[in-house]
Amino acid sequence: MCGIVGGIRRHSNIVDFLTDGLKRLEYRGYDSSGIAVHTPDKIARVRRVGRVQNMQDAATAKGLTGSLGIGHTRWATHGGVTEPNAHPHISGGLIAVVHNGIIENFESEKARLQNLGYEFESQTDTEVIAHSIKHEYMNNGGDLFLAVKQAAQNFHGAYAIAVIAHDNPNEMVVARMGCPLLVAFGDDETFIASDVSAVIAFTRKISYLEDGDIALLNADGIIKMIDKTGQAVNRAVKTSSISLASLELGGYNHFMQKEIYEQPKAISDTAEVFLDGGFDAINFGENAETIFKDIDSIKILACGTSYYSALTAKYWLESIAKIRTDVEIASEYRYRDVIANPKELIITISQSGETLDTMEALKFAQNQGHKYSLSICNVMESALPRASTLVLYTRAGAEIGVASTKAFTTQLVVLFGLAVTLGKLRGFVDEAMEQDFIAQLRHLPNDVQHALNLEPQIVAWASKFAAKPSALFLGRGIHYPIALEGALKLKEITYIHAEAYPAGELKHGPLALVDDNMPVVVIAPNDALLDKVKANMQEVSARGGELFVFTDLDTEFSADDKVHLIRTPRHIGVLSPIVHTVGVQLLSYHCALAKGTDVDKPRNLAKSVTVE
Ligand code: F6R
């Protein structure tokens, strides 16, 4: 969703950083962008609806230069996708602001400021921030830091803001409450951003702000900073290890394609923690063993693809660790009456670590008395791990494509590792079983590579799929969530309507949809439910449906013109859901190519969903 950048250089132009940073934030999803730069005459601003490139071209045409500036990519929430609603917002030619998040009391604040004589040009909540800071700036003798501090007391909601003033050419003030914000330090230059990917081409030295922090910056770094209690504070400076290559396409056509192909490595990097360190509680945090011994059940909260990894994990956690596991969509959980159990471990799963629904669900659980929480997350230092008792990071590397791929399969690796770890601690996994699980985990990157090698057959399927208006995905047991994930991927990037069902449910309703124009994808590996799945497939065939079956080497299926088979080269076993995910990912990707949709930036979607 929205992204923020800003920077101060001692002498040179900041515009190249602002536009480069905004381009690196494009993956998060946005519909307009803008920059504001301090010039001797005024705060000069360029905003455009559409791609950052349009905005950059306009800035170049205007000859925009200056050593202090802020920029923003906007994903519309309050007010439509228009240039007046795009950030930065300027009050009285004096104060310019960019903002991520939502000011919940913006209507009452707007009324208050209108009574004070301020006129509004946009429909956004952000404009109240600009006017409010301007008002305080005038009342506090042009002290920008104090003005932001005073104004922030009026804002209810979540925000990360960066503010500059026309009569202060060398300084910027930033503030954070509930939305990520970092300060990055170069030589004679200081940057700010909502996401580390915006600054990494310029410097790796980074400090993450905490909720309630307000900081005054110049080209030397942070001049002063206070925390939410108003006390002076310093935040640690860390060196980011994110590789620049992970943020660029390399030889691939799309980030989604690159990220699908990165899975063998991402999986082996993530599995390393268990393969080197064993299935040991310490992998999840200092006091994980004590916590794991005290819990009697697990509740997993997540959204979208991360929710499907939770659904998959339920099977492992209940069969390997024999621990009762509930899985809930985060946005549902937080709005119902829950029966809290302090011995229940709350797990949140999130690629970004900043999904608002998941974050709020965790806070809700904590407020209900849940004392143990574990975050499984791909982004270091993001909000969810910071708010959790325990954490284990997936090592997928940056995921840029909006459709989640390698984050999902690496989440599954961590969740499998958790199930075996708990199984050992609870006495359900003996030495022989553990060795078998280790062997399977070691084999996994190879199995995933073999699944990737099946791509040419999937391309052939995609050409049949792309013209269809809708599709059904079926699976049973632990492969049902993979059917759900397959349907979600197809919807997201091809806009083909797709639904997933447990295959046994077909006859209870969805079978009515099946005719010769309805492709039915089935995940049918050689497991205990294979015969049941075959019976469900007969139900489809009998109604003229066309079957596209992902299966294993040794299943007895016969292909014909209405039954298409793709087989993995061997029977996989307990990690089969991870391997079979690759097929449905590639199917969606190639359908999207055949349809010509925007694979990495599907319409209406954002990578990081930081609003409700
Ligand atoms: C689908 C997808 C989304 C995310 C969901 C949660 O491909 O990417 O469904 O999984 O928005 O995001 P995170 O995992 O960042 O919490």
What is the topology?
Layout: E1 3-9, H1 15-24, E2 32-38, E3 43-49, H2 52-62, E4 68-74, E5 89-91, E6 95-103, H3 106-115, H4 126-139, H5 144-152, E7 157-165, E8 168-177, E9 182-186, E10 189-193, E11 205-208, E12 214-218, E13 221-226, E14 238-239, H6 255-261, H7 263-277, H8 288-294, E15 297-302, H9 304-319, E16 324-329, H10 330-333, E17 344-350, H11 356-367, E18 373-377, H12 383-387, E19 390-393, H13 406-425, H14 431-452, H15 455-465, E20 470-475, H16 480-494, E21 497-502, E22 519-524, H17 530-542, E23 546-551, E24 563-567, H18 576-595
Bound molecules: fructose -6-phosphate.
The tally of structural domains comes to: 3
The gross shape turns out to be globular
Return residue spans where pLDDT drops below 50 for at least 5 consecutive residues. none
Main beta sheet strand tally, sense and closure: 8 strands, antiparallel
N- to C-terminal distance: 12 Å
Bound molecules: fructose -6-phosphate
Q: Name the CATH architecture of the largest domain.
A: 4-Layer Sandwich
Overall SS class: alpha/beta
Helix content: 25-40%
The total of beta strands comes to: 24
Q: Strand order, biggest sheet?
A: 3-2-4-1-10-9-11-14
Oligomer: single chain
Q: Return the CATH topology of the largest domain.
A: Glutamine Phosphoribosylpyrophosphate, subunit 1, domain 1
Rg from Cα: 26 Å
